[in-house]
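Structure tokens please, single chain.
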Amino acid sequence: MLSAKALTSHDLRGLSHGAVSELAASLLAQLDAKDAQLQQATAQIAQRDAAIKFKDAKLERITFELARLKAWRFAARTEAMNAQQHQMFEDTLAEDQASLEAQLQALQGVSTTPPASGEHEGNDKRKPRRQALPEHLRRVDHHHEPEETSCACGKPMVRIGEDVSERLDVVPAEFFVHRHIRGKWACRCCQTLVQEPVPPQVIDKGMPTAGLVAHTLVARFVDHLPYFRQEQINARSGVHTPRSTLAAWAGAGGASLMPLYEAHRAFVLGAAVLHADETPVRMLDPGAGKTAKAYVWAYARGELDETPGVIYNFCKGRGSKYPADFLAEWSGTLTCDDYGGYDALLKLPGRIEAGCLAHARRKFDELAKANASPVAQQAIQRIARLYTVDREARERACDDRLAH
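Here you go.
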């Protein structure tokens, strides 16, 4: 085949009709090949442009979402939520923010490996630093050594140290069975049978041990897991525990705890100084088809007692009869706010009221922030000096603290 690049003008004049046709066909074939290559390159460029455009759009969207989440986090309107709603909002926002940051780092080709404990993460002081893992946790050591410890020069290497990194793991809850095998011993002469008696249980002749009952109570009343969710969790391990059964276990466990409750109540009410406060909670009211407001009254030993303690009393109302009935046999100093529900109790002999200074300061603080009273700022300063004296005396013994 003739090459157009090798031909000169003189050669072109000497070509025959057949050679010209051959040359033209060659040129057309080359043009078709170049056109195909150009189309392929154009398609690849368009594909890359589309991928870059999609990636840029995704980066822009994630960056916008991240900025919006941060704006929501620090916006003033979050203060309108109650404490529980605010915490749920913060938890969800933290999950979303971490997810978006991981996606952003993946798109930008940045490593998502978190810094080791103790390393600084830039100058952002708001980011929490990873705390050291508690010392009481069980450690499982995994040793990693090179397969070859001989140098290329032929001499053996010397171990000069090691790097230790720790990662946290968990073993999910495991169900297992206690088998109590009680041997039977008999005397053929006396026709006497001897066997070790069955030890007392929280639920006699029942399936659960005290540990399983305690686990059910903690899951229900501390972790707030309804019985139907516990039933589903247990079913994943192949253990069938209907919610009615779990409720029966919890009731029996609560009855078994009553002596401990009474002993703890006697311990708390044995203090000469008590702190009292009440907190509203929502209570199911099946007959009305809605929830009703109830109250949990808390009574705590003095803050500076050597052994702290607190006891709770669930009541359907906030009337003065509730603290009066609960503290009917107690006498001493009661630290509380200025709620009138304590008046009936404090009128009884042997009761002394100690007002809460934090509640008193709160009113002065509101006046000072509103510039509504020139005396409010002076009151705050004097209360601050009282707090200073309190901090100085906190670690002293009782008599030394009183003298200070």
